[in-house]
């Protein structure tokens, strides 16, 4: 149960369509469900506004299916799965169909979604700027995470500083964004440049894209951490999900959720 569902439940109590005892029973469901290989946090939606997210890497398809079906049975109808590769996605899709559940899987972001994206209700637009096509999987993980959580998202693709005119041609979008996610590998300069063009918070995402001295994203990470632009924060290497979630929180400051 998330906050919106809790509010609906309380509204039903207020209008008399549900008894206080029934509501209390629904709210008092065990907040932790132990299914052997995982302990599910069933109250996270009430605390944080969105339910538990499943990290797919390292889990088997059967484990993912078990977690999804348990969360869904507990009332969490919208479920996000990250780092879900194609082989697991096919297996999970087949298994979930036996429970009348449909998995929507994206090949670029490796995200799996059960249910629909939340209706966009943030205070503005999240802009995801991707330095190069090779950074696109991480950028799409960020963008689709933000969309799942209920945000309007715009994308700038292949706007790295090696051809800075490509980025500057989108100056109006950069100026209008409520929060910007800058995704870049190599030397990671995109975040600093965008930070100097915008008054919005910039979330920098270093990627593991680059040659040997890039050290699988360490060079981009250190460059972003040492950005000379004010208002730039940094998440972990390839952590598009974390950036999308953080951007969602910023875009919902002041919203009644």
Automatic annotation (TrEMBL):
GO biological process, alphabetically ordered: 'de novo' IMP biosynthetic process
Transmembrane segments: none
Taxonomic superkingdom: Bacteria
Domain named PurE: residues: 124-253
GO molecular function: hydrolase activity
Pfam families: AIRC
PANTHER family: PHOSPHORIBOSYLAMINOIMIDAZOLE CARBOXYLASE-RELATED, SLL1489 PROTEIN
Protein name (Swiss-Prot/TrEMBL): Nickel pincer cofactor biosynthesis protein LarB
Origin species: Candidatus Coprovicinus avistercoris
Gene: larB
């Amino acid at each position: 149960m998330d906050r919106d569902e809790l509010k609906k439940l309380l509204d039903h109590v207020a209008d008399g369509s549900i008894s206080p005892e029934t509501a209390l029973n629904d709210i008092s469901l065990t907040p932790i469900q132990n299914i052997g290989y995982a302990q599910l946090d069933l109250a996270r939606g009430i605390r944080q506004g969105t339910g538990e997210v499943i990290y797919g890497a390292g889990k088997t398809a059967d484990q993912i299916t078990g977690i999804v079906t348990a969360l869904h049975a507990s009332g969490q109808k919208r479920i996000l799965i990250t780092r879900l590769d194609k082989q697991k996605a096919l297996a999970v899709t087949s298994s979930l169909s036996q429970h009348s559940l449909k998995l929507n899987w994206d090949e670029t972001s490796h995200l799996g979604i059960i249910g629909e994206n939340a209706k966009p209700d943030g205070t503005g637009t999240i802009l995801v700027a991707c330095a190069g096509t090779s950074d696109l999987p991480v950028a799409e993980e960020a963008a689709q995470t933000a969309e799942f959580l209920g945000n309007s998202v715009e994308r700038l693709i292949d706007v790295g500083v090696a051809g800075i005119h490509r980025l500057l041609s989108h100056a109006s979008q950069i100026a209008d964004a409520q929060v910007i996610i800058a995704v870049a590998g190599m030397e990671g300069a995109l975040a600093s440049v965008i930070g100097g063009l915008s008054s919005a918070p910039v979330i920098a995402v270093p990627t593991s894209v680059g040659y040997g001295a890039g050290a699988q994203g360490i060079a981009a990470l250190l460059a972003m951490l040492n950005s000379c632009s004010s208002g730039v924060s940094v998440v972990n290497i390839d952590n598009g999900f974390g950036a999308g979630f953080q951007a969602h929180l910023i875009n919902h400051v002041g919203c009644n959720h």
